[in-house]
Amino acid sequence: MKSTRIFTHVDTWVFDLDNTLYPHHVNLWQQVDARIGEFVCSWLNLSPDQARKIQKDYYRRFGTTMRGMMTLHGVRADDYLAYVHKIDHSPLEPNPALGAAIAKLPGRKLILTNGSVDHVDAVLARLGLAAHFDGVFDIIAAGFEPKPAPQTYQKFLADHAVDPVRAAMFEDLARNLTVPHQLGMSTVLVVPDDTKEVVREDWELEGRDAAHVDHVTDDLAGFLAKLSL
């Protein structure tokens, strides 16, 4: 472990959803990514290649493509979310080891995601993890301001009465751990295990050595199970 920030004081465990609670190589997010591309292509009447460039530009600049489409093109969030999350969740398999590890954590377990509650519910149902979480803060609760916007974390902390100094955050994107670390949270970056092919942008896999990343793991269940609490 690369940090002195430990977990014995933690009473709130905060997890991202996609590529964090399930392995990167499942590539479930690639289905959503493809649906986003289709939405952008249709809405802006662009070629697939043009739409792809716009999609990824907005993702980087606004935190989500949706935020860019809302801000610059008047897209309604409900229409966007309903379309892009209409995917096949069957690649996800139950993960009893992760469930057992989460169940043993003392205190509350919450999800903080740029996705929607409907998507969270579908994913947790497939993973068999729904019973282990006490609440969800999704993109709608965030007022459609995605991570890594500072106000999104502040609203999350306020809505769920979380003391950041007594909380830990698990994420697959290093940039989404910058603000949590500044607020005093212990931060964990969940990365691919390098044994299977993953489809990610290069920047999405950066940040393992960043100062705001306290710990890095490619095995979330194993990491949690080994914590000394």
UniProtKB/TrEMBL annotation:
PANTHER family reported in the protein's UniProt record: HALOACID DEHALOGENASE-LIKE HYDROLASE
Matches recorded under SUPFAM superfamilies: HAD-like
Entries under Gene3D superfamilies matching the protein: 1.10.150.450, HAD superfamily/HAD-like
Listed name of the protein: Pyrimidine 5'-nucleotidase
Alphabetical list of InterPro entries matching this protein: HAD-like_sf, HAD-SF_hydro_IA, HAD_sf, Pyr-5-nucltdase
Positions of transmembrane segments: none
Signal peptide per UniProt: none
Pfam families: Hydrolase (PF00702)
Organism for this UniProt entry: Bradyrhizobium sp. LLZ17
